[in-house]
């Protein structure tokens, strides 16, 4: 195994680790949905602070997520830049006002409305990214599959989801191993090389990674077929856990936050909180 931290389940004894996988899934879906749909800045800020607090409680360390966070940050910045490039006054259209900050060049101006819209997008990322990382890093795949099956999802689908969660660190490990092999052949993929050489070296990892992944999938499929997986309508679970009081409390809390977000739709006469009125 490489010395890089792999993005997968990390055992611990925090309150978030003790929540059942199904409870965490329900909470994650509810909060992510209301955050993605709504644009009330006050609500987004509150959920962002809530997510950051949960992240602190989960005791996830920076070196365990640094790579994926940097990747997400780059993607988020590109998304913000793309929004501005294609529609530099989209915020003006949304909020119905135009308060100019910078005249700019041609149609590329900077307005308070566009800046405010960009802040909302940043808050959406800040609210949802920690939740996704918490879900992945604190959820035991086997227990999660059992929880999904318990709430009515067919066990074949539940087991597929569990395999996908287990497969994330495997893919990362293969990526690093292939990268080290490429470096041994003189292809630069480390941070010491030039950007052009690193891009070229990383591109050379893709095809071997795809073929190794397909080979692993074929091995797992054959093993499951040999064990007659899917021949029965039901199955038992070794890691199954019943809903506990803490699960109901967590779902109730998140449901309350979700209904608050929905209530704000009525308060704002729509999805957007408009301070420019």
TrEMBL record:
Pfam families per UniProt: CbiQ
Major localization class: membrane
Transmembrane segments: 22-55, 67-86, 115-137, 248-267
Signal sequence residues: none
Protein name: Energy-coupling factor transport system permease protein
UniProt cross-references to CDD domains, sorted A to Z: EcfT
Topology class, membrane: Multi-pass membrane protein
Keyword list, A-Z: Membrane, Transmembrane, Transmembrane helix
Organism name: Desemzia incerta
UniProt-annotated location(s): Membrane
A GO CC term assigned to this protein in UniProt: plasma membrane
């Amino acid at each position: 195994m490489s010395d890089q931290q792999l993005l997968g389940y990390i055992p611990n004894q925090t309150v978030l680790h003790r929540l059942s996988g199904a409870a965490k899934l329900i909470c994650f879906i509810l909060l992510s949905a209301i955050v993605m749909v709504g644009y009330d800045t006050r609500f987004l800020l509150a959920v962002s602070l809530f997510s950051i607090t949960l992240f602190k409680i989960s005791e996830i360390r920076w070196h365990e997520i640094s790579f994926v966070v940097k990747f997400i940050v780059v993607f988020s910045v590109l998304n913000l830049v793309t929004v501005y490039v294609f529609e530099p006054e989209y915020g003006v259209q949304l909020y119905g006002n135009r308060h100019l900050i910078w005249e700019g060049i041609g149609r590329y101006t900077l307005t308070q409305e566009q800046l405010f819209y960009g802040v909302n997008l940043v808050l959406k990322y800040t609210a949802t990214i920690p939740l996704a990382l918490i879900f992945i890093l604190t959820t035991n795949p086997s227990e999660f599959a059992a929880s999904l099956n318990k709430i009515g999802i067919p066990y074949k689908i539940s087991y597929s989801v569990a395999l996908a969660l287990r497969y994330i660190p495997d893919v990362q490990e293969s990526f690093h191993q292939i990268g080290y092999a490429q470096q041994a052949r003189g292809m630069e993929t480390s941070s010491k090389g030039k950007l052009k050489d690193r891009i070229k070296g990383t591109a050379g990892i893709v095809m071997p990674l795809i073929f190794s992944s397909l080979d692993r999938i074929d091995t797992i499929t054959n093993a499951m077929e040999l064990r007659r997986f899917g021949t029965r309508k039901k199955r038992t679970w070794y890691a199954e856990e019943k809903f506990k009081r803490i699960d109901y409390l967590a779902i109730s809390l998140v449901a309350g936050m979700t209904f608050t977000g929905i209530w704000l739709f009525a308060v704002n006469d729509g999805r957007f909180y408009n301070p420019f009125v």
